[in-house]
Amino acid sequence: MLFDLDDTLLNRDHAVDNLFLMILEECYEDIKHSARIEMLEKFRVFDKRSYGNGDKTKVLESLFDEFPPKYRLPHNDIQDFWNNHFPRCFSINQNTINIVNSIKRQVKVGIITNGSTQRQKAKILQTDLNHSFDIIIISEEVGFSKPDKRIFELALNKMNVQPEAVLFVGDDIERDIAGCQNANIKGIWFNPHMNKNDTEIKPYAEIHSFDSLLRYIT
After folding, report:
1. Given 90, 112, 119, 191, which is the most exposed site by the fewest CB atoms within 10 A?
2. CB distance 61 to 78 below 8 Å
3. 175 and 114 in contact (C-beta within 8 Å)?
4. pTM (predicted TM-score)
5. pLDDT one-digit tens code per residue, 166-198
């Protein structure tokens, strides 16, 4: 069983909120509660806009332009700030680890994630996920990213398994589910927010909680 990382194994939205608190502490002071809520909503929007882009400078620049800080991080320092602080904002849900470990007792498990090698490795180390998985593939490291079928085929080769023996679990209907299906792997759409599927892509299965995965390996 193969897994996506962000918004599947790890709750990226919570991490974004934690990073915002770090930025408040570093760059602002005496922000009223109502203004703080407005700033957080905008920060989430700016982050979503840049999702999939490794350079996060624009996210913070947009926040600083709209809400001038007391101390503005220099333009050239923003990327380093993000790279160093964002991975520390992640934590792992113990239930998720318990389920992964239950699955691992029966089948090999791996991670396929898009993103920068530095940040994705730091997130994995921060949450101890490196101890739970047989293989970890990061797009920047291997030179292609989901939905490119080659990144899935690389995982199959590393695990020495045929596609029909594998399930891939991910939250992104296009990158994860269409991507794995391009490599003839069945895709389980992890959809905890019960988003509507407005695409032509039909996942092998849809789950709303991680616990549901256990029924696919017994």
Report:
1. 191
2. yes
3. yes
4. 0.92
5. 999 999 999 999 999 999 999 999 999 999 999
Backbone dihedral region of 164: left (phi > 0), alpha (psi from -120 to 50 degrees) or beta?
alpha
CA distances 207 to 127, 187, 189, 194, 197, Å, are 23, 11, 6, 9, 13
For 50, the token pair is 């840049």
State the pLDDT at residue 117: 93
Q: Average per-residue pLDDT in the chain? A: 95
Residue type, 138: I
Cα separation, 114 vs 106, whole angstroms: 26
